[in-house]
Amino acid sequence: MRYWQPKYETMKKEELTQLQLKRLKKTAAAVYQNVPFYREKFNKLDVGPDNISSVDDICELPMTFKTDMRDNYPFGLFAVPNNEIVRIHASSGTSGKPTVVGYTHNDIENWSELMARNLTMVGLDNNDVFQNAVNYGLFTGGLGFHYGVERIGAMTIPSGTGNTCRQLEMMMDFGVTAVHCTPSYALYLAETANEMGIVDKLSLKVGCFGAEPWSSNTRKQLEKSLDIKAYDSYGLSELMGPGIAFECEQQDGLHIWGDHFFVEVLDQNGEQVSEGEKGELVITSLTKEALPVIRYRTGDITRLLESECSCGRTTPRISRLLGRVDDMLIVRGINVFPSQIEDVIVRIPEITEHFQVILDRNVKMLDEITVKVELEENAFTGELKDLASVRRHVENELKSVLNIRTNVELVERGTIPRTEGKSKKVIDRRNAL
Length: 433
Ligand code: DLL
Prior knowledge:
The protein folds into two domains: about 1-325, Rossmann fold (3-Layer(aba) Sandwich), CATH 3.40.50; about 330-430, GMP Synthetase, Chain A, domain 3 (2-Layer Sandwich), CATH 3.30.300.30. Helix 6 (about 140-150) links the parallel strand 3 and strand 4 (about 155). The protein is globular, with a radius of gyration of 23 Å. The chain is built from eleven helices and 19 strands. Helix 5 (about 105-120) packs across helix 6 and helix 10 crosses helix 11 (about 385-400). The strands form four sheets. The protein has an eleven-stranded mixed sheet with strand order 4-3-5-6-7-8-9-13-12-11-10. Strands 18-17-16-19 form a four-stranded mixed sheet. It has a two-stranded antiparallel sheet with strand order 1-2. Helices cover about 30% and strands about 25% of the residues. It has about 425 residues and is of the alpha/beta class. It starts with 5 loop residues before the first helix and ends in a 5-residue tail after the last strand. 5'-O-[hydroxy(phenylacetyl)phosphoryl]adenosine binds near residues 91, 232, 234, 321 and 324. The site of 5'-O-[hydroxy(phenylacetyl)phosphoryl]adenosine has 19 residues, from helix 6, strand 7, strand 8 and strand 12.
């Protein structure tokens, strides 16, 4: 087994806890001294950095929410003067002001280091050719991966997004062995490569996919259509960007680097869930200088995995993300997650893996859910011989998982917009009516 930093990756639990305690105290002291927002929050709860004598004392500390980042836009939560900031990134800001995040020189070093650990974890090294097919602007996915790929000495192709045929041409011409993009763009790349009949001309072996949810069936589909191993990469700008949690070659949960992040999984009341239960992932940074974050409520749902990973790494591990606290759709009182729909769709060979969920209210003001899916070109070569039977089949499959009736709309292949970045799978028109 190859490790990038064996000392930290295989640390004994007690040793890691000691390191975490030391770093937690330092982080708490830094925010208390340098960030008025945190000082006020600590004072309100009557806690201070000196109250921390064990990592369990973290539950006494205040939480941080996305709204706190927005309220302190742009630099209000920075713990160092601006002349120590060497880079900023920002979230897209589709639901309000963007969240601006900053990095010192050391932060960028640590980030590159963690990305290097992740890439080593999926078997990549300086013999690889890595195509980074994500947006290189303020989005953390571009430069975040880029620095990590350079750190392991692989040949980096900063292809960015767009022009799918050209992306595939580069893959062929440069002998690309690993690609990073969103899973929705990967599906589009795979679809186009298949249409062009060039899959066997590619040297791809690894795909790193993340920045949005994707199901196990999508993974199977990508692995099969591109003949690769597909790994899940999780991260968020507020804590750093990509690289927070990453799968290893075992593909059995995501490792989180415990020497840099402290992880909790909490229930709706902010209490720790019982062992192995799902809840909201809450992360505290332990080494960040520019923007240290205490107990950040990610809004992402996961479980802490208790068993040790057979790769030998002893880091905390989480299950693949199970959805977001706020992306649960409530349709006629029933909870529906887009990931459940995705799981059903990608299993049905008569339709493509692209879909869109549209929520409306009917004349009786009752919720209606429509799932738009695309018919495959060779849809009628199996048991289902016409449009009506394909539609009925998809409706029945969805009903058996969701427990509600959906309207399925079959559209021509290629009609649902493909995306180069994060895809927008749900259109909720219920309040627009
Ligand atoms: O998406 C950082 C990133 C870039 C991660 C490239 C992985 C690869 P944000 O734009 O701030 O940062 O979005 C963060 O995206 O809270 C999750 O809801 C979602 N997300 C990210 N990765 C995954 C994943 C980047 N692997 C938000 N599975 C997070 C499910 C994910 N959701």
